[in-house]
Amino acid sequence: xxxxxxxxxxxxxxxxxxxxxxxxxxxxxxxxxxxxxxxxxxxxxxxxxxxxxxxxxxxxxxxxxxxxxxxxxxxxxxxxxxxxxxxxxxxxxxxxxxxxxxxxxxxxxxxxxxxxxxxxxxxxxxxxxxxxxxxxxxxxxxxxxxxxxxxxxxxxxxxxxxxxxxxxxxxxxxxxxxxxxxxxxxxxxxxxxxxxxxxxxxxxxxxxxxxxxxxxxxxxxxxxxxxxxxxxxxxxxxxxxxxxxxxxxxxxxxxxxxxxxxxxxxxxxxxxxxxxxxxxxxxxxxxxxxxxxxxxxxxxxxxxxxxxxxxxxxxxxxxxxxxxxxxxxxxxxxxxxxxxxxxxxxxxxxxxxxxxxxxxxxxxxxxxxxxxxxxxxxxxxxxxxxxxxxxxxxxxxxxxxxxxxxxxxxxxxxxxxxxx
Length: 420
Prior knowledge:
Number of domains: 3
Strand order of the largest sheet: 8-9-10-13-14-17
Protein name: Peptidase
Domain Tail specific protease: 193-396
Keywords: Signal
Number of strands: 17
Distance between the termini: 91 Å
Organism: Hymenobacter duratus
CATH topology of the largest domain: 2-enoyl-CoA Hydratase, Chain A, domain 1
Order of helices and strands: HHHHHEEEHEEHHEEEEHEHEHEEHEEEEH
CATH architecture of the largest domain: Alpha-Beta Complex
Number of helices: 13
């Protein structure tokens, strides 16, 4: 075998490898600097929610660029960018990669939602079917410690170092990041309930949040005369369109329908969203407004658009209720405000994930991963920011966890009384 032939075989093998395997050679200091410059500048020019933040983005550059001389591995660089991105305290901004000890994504990788009430960290929602619910965590419980660390100390490392003021939004996200935990450390949550302390272990015997599985793209059933469809976190899967169509056709004879979007934390795409909404319309209508701040920032010309949804075959015209909660996220939130704008559904539940805008993905020029940030502001057609929308009918979760109060409320609205 000639040397030239061996080289040709080696070249073909290398070129055939995935990019992530071909790019394992360590980067040079100049390449890390180039990637950091691209990261910082791209966010400066395209992130569209700086006006809502206490973030000093030039200060972020000073803080994290000073750490670059000590960066020599991919893992170190990932951690540096994670920390820099955390300065935005925006759970719709993320890297496309993670480390074993990276925080789980909020809300996709969480099973509990909490906020500060009168200065105390309190559970406001628990994700059905996951570890936190299984071990007895319930709304109303006060959080005392996370992995034996008092809550205030646990959230301190998750608060940005550049913030002019640590506002309520920053503290809330830091609290929920701390509760989400990382990808390898089992959580111990210490709570106070009825005057007593309890230790709960939501990742024992296994961390369900690391291995989330669903029986299908959706599930459905008939509850008396009412149809019920729950989307199982599949709004980004185009196969959901056919599955939804056939399911809705099977429920065509019902007196009303409940569309449950409470398990859609990973977002989705507008093709699936418009396909779902289109099955409930008989004429074209706008469902969402977009704004593009980067264009206005660059040229001084404001740009906004209305997105239209068109009717599809066999529209379902009976009453519709949409159920939402903290794990209704991104595209789930878009469908919700869409149905509200279309005047086609009653929205029942609690506040949603409140994710900011629509994201765009960018890729670093030398590293093998990218990052995602909100670049478009999204609004209800009435001008209300999507992240501020709350249901017309607000129903709090059952603090005992024995009754699905939102579902019960929806059924009460839709059930047809039996004829005497």
